[in-house]
Design brief:
- Keywords: Membrane, Transmembrane, Transmembrane helix.
- The structure is a single chain.
- The protein is an all-alpha fold.
- The protein starts with a helix and ends with a helix.
- It has two domains: about 5-235, no CATH class; about 240-289.
- It has helices at about 5-60, 70-75, 85-95, 110-120, 120-125, 125-145, 155-180, 185-195, 200-210, 210-220, 225-235, 240-289.
- Helix 7 (about 155-180) crosses helix 8 (about 185-195).
- It is built from twelve helices and no strands.
Length: about 290
């Protein structure tokens, strides 16, 4: 009887080698696509960064000297003054972070973690997130400006894609802070890649809906509200909520006691008065008889 086991072993090895080559080819194609898009995004980011710096310089010249200091301080949240190297890193973050609705970018988590690990300022400098939010909001404002020159449909679609990439990057950076993960992006990805608890599943859903990034954009647009919320949370101001709940509970108990103890007394009083009225004629009649 012929032994074909060695041929089966060779066949398995060929299949593994073929799958490995396909995976390597897929990675190479992905990196090439990232490099091509990276260069375009970097130019877009640089152009919007220059416009943001120019508008900031103009706003400083037109600043009201009589405005309250706290309003000036809150409306001028610090953002990172990105260098050329910083813009290159941020544009790569936008490329790696981006995913369309119904998809996810978690398959690219090794590249994201490597990028953050090699550039710690992405997470450690709060001005990085503020810069991305400022650029996104500035671009959105420009897109809604009716007085701007018309843009070709293809270019308009590309501009919208870049703005959504800004949101994806903000979502990546803000996730750890908004979800309370002290371990940073590494902890976030480890939690949501294989969510095992309801809290982890909720984090995964927020990541896919980009709610972390949307919250960061809102905070950047309304810094006064953000400071109020932060102060409220830091001061543990739940005591006034419990006070209100306690007052409402006392009110409900007082009403219940009023209806429970008050109504029977009024009924008894009515019965007594009726009885007294009814007995008076009887006594008078008895006296006459």
């Amino acid at each position: 009887m012929n032994d074909y086991s060695k041929w089966e072993k060779l066949s398995d090895e060929d299949e593994e080698e073929r799958q490995e080559k396909e995976a390597e080819l897929s990675r190479a194609e992905f990196h090439e696509a990232c490099r091509e898009e990276h260069a375009i995004v970097e130019q877009w980011l640089k152009r919007n960064m220059n416009q943001l710096s120019r508008l900031e310089a103009e706003s400083k010249q037109q600043k009201d000297p009589h405005a309250p200091p706290e309003l000036i301080r809150n409306s001028m949240a610090r953002y990172r003054k990105a260098s050329k190297d910083d813009l290159r890193v941020l544009s790569m973050l936008m490329v790696l972070s981006h995913f369309d609705e119904g998809e996810t970018n978690l398959t690219r988590h090794p590249q994201l973690l490597d990028l953050v690990r090699q550039n710690r300022w992405l997470e450690e400098d709060p001005g990085t997130l503020e810069l991305i939010c400022r650029i996104h909001n500035l671009h959105m404002k420009n897109a809604e400006d009716s007085s701007r020159p018309p843009v070709a449909p293809g270019q308009e679609k590309l501009e919208n894609r870049f703005r959504h990439m800004c949101l994806s990057a903000a979502n990546t950076i803000a996730a750890a802070r908004k979800s309370g993960c002290s371990g940073g992006l590494l902890e976030v990805i480890n939690t949501i890649c294989t969510p095992k608890t309801p809290k982890a599943q909720e984090m995964r859903l927020k990541w896919q809906k980009k709610e972390f990034g949307k919250d960061a954009l809102f905070d950047s647009l309304f810094p006064d509200l953000k400071q109020f919320k932060d102060d409220y949370d830091n001061n543990d101001s739940w005591w006034d909520i419990w006070l209100m709940l306690g007052f409402m509970l006392l009110l409900v108990l007082g009403l219940a006691a009023f209806f429970f103890y008050g109504l029977p007394r009024s009924s008894a009083k009515t019965t007594t008065s009726t009885t007294s009225i009814g007995t008076e004629p009887t006594k008078s009649l008895g006296g006459e008889l």
